[in-house]
């Protein structure tokens, strides 16, 4: 029976009702089975068919969930990814498995040509990778993984080994990707932001001449319905952007596509706070990193906050103008622990209002404005609900003591993960599975939410005032 309350005002703990999640023990076993099936021996693929390699932010989310089952595997997940880091500090968005046939995924290693085209940027010689990046969730993941078993982490020297790599990763972003000159990181390809096909990219992408359709073969259509995936026109633009970046030797600069994205920068803030805690654990001061996180928070508010709309918008670096499309990216800054209270209240109002409908018309957070012209409940990042972005919103709600809404969202995520067979993404209204099933970050984050709900955990690890401690 659906007991979801139709909400017209901000919810309270008494207002929100939700169906109970499935039996936790059964769901834990099922989620664990997904992660076992997708484990390669050193990392976890997002899905065996559609995504047969290691993806950067997927591995961070996977490690966050794996820490509840095997802290050692969670550490290994992050260590494997960071072993493919480039000399300039970037963490590539794909680390390719050499045993997977080239035609199993496009763009494949022979497209990226990392060892040759990326030589000047310090691409590794012994492993093939892509040349672009994904959101920096990794320091947050590393800290939470450490907290799951501090004795194992200290015995293995886990934090001591990953800290220099994470610090170099952040330096790369802060020094090489401030393309707008205002202190925020820019993405140079929609794939970098992770929400590949969002309508937030339509305007800046319209300037890009697409690569000819005959110049590439889309492997994604072998595993997903064309009506749920990006169009051939958009895909051609993605290929053109990636090829141009490759042909410039992966050198960063103000190209045809550069966007300041609120979610990407909010995750950098969260990871800067986590990196400060890692530094403190290793006996070094973390004050400078907390201060840097505060400067990033200030820049994010100054450059991307829209008080009239009550949310953050992307900013097109090429034109200097905001991109007025309401995507879930504009809600993710709820993660910011020192975000002013009035902005938190405005974001919660937007989240539960008509554009996202959480608790009223939707049970999970749609990836795009329900009232937007480009909204599609099934097409990739143009409306469906994704488990990783909903997990980030849920965590942000807990950071700011929005407990009733966070509990309802967590229970809806847990229930939907179970009924959708751990789908890649779902229809935000019905929970119908879309994309791949048996998706790793869905299974992993389900494990994390089950732990959160059973232990009544509040994510204090995001709060800069706390030094050390679990918080996970």
Automatic annotation (TrEMBL):
Q: What protein does this entry describe?
A: Mannosylglycerate hydrolase MGH1-like glycoside hydrolase domain-containing protein
Gene3D superfamilies from the xrefs? 1.50.10.10
Mannosylglycerate hydrolase MGH1-like glycoside hydrolase domain location is: 51-442
Gene Ontology molecular-function annotations: Glc3Man9GlcNAc2 oligosaccharide glucosidase activity
Spell out the PANTHER family in the cross-references.
Answer: MANNOSYL-OLIGOSACCHARIDE GLUCOSIDASE (PTHR10412:SF11)
Q: What does the UniProt keyword field contain?
A: Glycosidase, Hydrolase
**What Pfam families does UniProt report for this protein, alphabetically?**
MGH1-like_GH
Describe the family membership recorded for this protein in Swiss-Prot or TrEMBL.
Belongs to the glycosyl hydrolase 63 family.
Q: Which GO terms describe its biological process?
A: oligosaccharide metabolic process; protein N-linked glycosylation
Kindly give the InterPro entries that the UniProt entry links to this protein.
6-hairpin_glycosidase_sf, 6hp_glycosidase-like_sf, Glycoside_hydrolase_63, MGH1-like_GH
């Amino acid at each position: 029976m659906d007991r979801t309350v139709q909400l017209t005002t901000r919810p309270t703990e008494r207002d929100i009702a939700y169906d109970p999640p499935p039996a936790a023990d059964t769901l834990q076993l099922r989620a664990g089975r997904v992660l076992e099936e997708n484990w390669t021996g050193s990392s976890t693929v997002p899905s065996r068919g559609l995504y047969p390699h290691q993806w950067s932010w997927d591995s961070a989310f996977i490690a966050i969930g794996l820490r509840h089952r095997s802290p050692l595997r969670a550490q290994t997940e992050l260590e494997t990814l960071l072993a493919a880091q480039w000399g300039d500090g970037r963490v590539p968005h794909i680390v390719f498995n050499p045993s997977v046939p080239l035609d199993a995924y496009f763009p494949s290693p022979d497209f990226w040509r990392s060892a040759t085209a990326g030589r000047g940027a310090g691409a590794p010689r012994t492993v093939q990778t892509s040349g672009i990046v994904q959101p920096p969730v990794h320091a947050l993941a590393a800290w939470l993984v450490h907290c799951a078993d501090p004795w194992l982490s200290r015995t293995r020297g886990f934090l001591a080994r990953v800290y220099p790599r994470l610090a170099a990763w952040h330096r790369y972003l802060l020094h090489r990707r401030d393309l707008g000159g205002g202190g925020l990181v820019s993405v140079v390809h929609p794939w970098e932001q992770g929400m590949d096909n969002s309508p937030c990219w339509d305007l800046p992408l319209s300037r890009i001449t697409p690569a000819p359709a005959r110049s590439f073969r889309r492997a994604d259509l072998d595993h997903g319905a064309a009506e749920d995936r990006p169009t051939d026109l958009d895909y051609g633009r993605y290929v053109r952007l990636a090829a141009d970046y490759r042909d410039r030797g992966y050198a960063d600069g103000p190209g045809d596509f550069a966007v300041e994205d609120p979610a990407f920068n909010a995750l950098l803030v969260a990871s800067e706070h986590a990196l400060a805690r890692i530094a403190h654990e290793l006996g070094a001061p973390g004050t400078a990193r907390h201060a840097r996180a505060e400067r990033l928070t200030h820049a994010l508010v100054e450059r991307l906050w829209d008080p009239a709309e009550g949310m953050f918008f992307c900013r097109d670096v090429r034109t200097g103008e905001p991109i007025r499309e309401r995507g879930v990216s504009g809600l993710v800054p709820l993660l910011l622990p020192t975000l002013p209270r009035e902005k938190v209240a405005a974001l919660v109002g937007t989240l539960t209002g008509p554009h996202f409908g959480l608790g009223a018309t939707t049970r999970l957070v749609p990836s795009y404005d329900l009232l937007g012209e480009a909204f599609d409940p099934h097409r990739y990042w143009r409306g469906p609900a994704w488990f990783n972005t909903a997990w980030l919103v849920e965590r942000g709600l807990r950071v700011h003591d929005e407990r009733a809404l966070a509990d309802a969202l967590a229970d809806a995520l847990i229930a939907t993960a179970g009924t959708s067979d751990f789908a890649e993404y779902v229809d935000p209204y019905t929970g119908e599975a879309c994309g791949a099933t048996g998706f790793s970050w869905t299974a992993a984050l389900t494990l994390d939410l089950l732990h959160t709900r059973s232990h009544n955990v509040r994510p204090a690890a995001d709060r800069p005032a706390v030094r050390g401690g679990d918080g996970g």
